[in-house]
Amino acid sequence: MLSISVKEILFWKKTQLFKGGDHESLALLLDSVGGISTSDLNSLSINPEGNLYLKKNLEFLENIWNEHLLNSSPIQYLCGITFWRDLKLKVTEKVLIPRSETELIIDIVSKIFGNSVQKLLFAELGTGSGAISISLALANPLWYGIATDIDQDALEIARENFINSSQQSNLKFYCGNWWSPLESFKGKLDLAISNPPYIPKDTYEKLPKEVKNFEPKVALFGGEDGLKHIREIIQKAPLFLKEKGWLILENHFDQGEKVKQLLIENKFTSIEIVKDLSGIGRFTIGRYK
């Protein structure tokens, strides 16, 4: 550990932000690589006469920051870490960086099922880093979850994140495309969740380079109209959900009505488009029969 004055780290922070970037990204770098949390830095900045201890020196941190600025590399990949709700998750370029908007899925599930202590079987299709499934498994120890992903490397990251987050064993990981790993769970799921690739072709081509050049295309690209995977998930969902089982999908900002229509066509009821904190119809939910 390297001792450094609070004044020096505050000056360094100001210098880095002057080059570009945002406070949140620099805070992630300082916390995950430097070992200095934002709360510690904020409290010590009131009395900047003291010292802090760094895990890595400022030159090392600055090199990472420079790469972030020069190449538009996502800071989460450079640090190998992201924070999501109350989880600290490992991320690499094999998985999508979980977005803060997606955190609302946990609140939607909580609203549907309340503080239920009953046993429940849920599946997440396309788990990526495991964020959604891990949050649900930790919050509901009596629930049993299955997290799937088409990419074995992504699944290993999700499994590692679960082990690092918990001593629980109520979440298992299956490799395969959408419903295919869940053949033995037909008609048994109380809840299925997915944040699938939903970016339409035209939009994908125009994505910012920090997304398009680094995050996995397989986790973003949703075909010509963006609904290729959503369509498949909805059409096959009735085979796997219990009667009155719920399906929760994240979709593109302008897809809610189309997803709602797909749910109606496949005999779902209680359909609702749920807005995110920006007022965008980010999620579409429905109950099977």
Key features?
two-stranded antiparallel ribbon; 289 residues; alpha/beta; 12 helices; Rossmann fold; elongated; 7-stranded mixed β-sheet; 2 domains; 41% helix
Task: Give a quick rundown of the structure.
With 289 residues, the protein is α/β, with parallel strands linked by helices. It contains twelve helices and eleven strands. α2 packs across α4.
Helix content: 40-55%
Report the major sheet: 7 strands, mixed
Do you know the CATH topology of the largest domain?
A: Rossmann fold
* CATH level-1 class of the largest domain: Alpha Beta
Task: Categorize the overall geometry.
Answer: elongated
Describe the protein in words.
The protein is an alpha/beta fold and 289 residues long. The protein folds into 2 domains: 2-71; 93-288, Vaccinia Virus protein VP39 (Rossmann fold, 3-Layer(aba) Sandwich), CATH 3.40.50.150. The protein is built from 12 helices and 11 strands. The chain has a 7-stranded mixed β-sheet with strand order 7-6-5-8-9-11-10, with helices on both faces. A two-stranded antiparallel sheet has the order 1-2. Strands 3-4 form a two-stranded antiparallel ribbon. A hairpin with a 5-residue loop joins β10 (268-275) and β11. The chain is elongated, with a radius of gyration of 21 Å. It starts with a strand and ends with a strand.
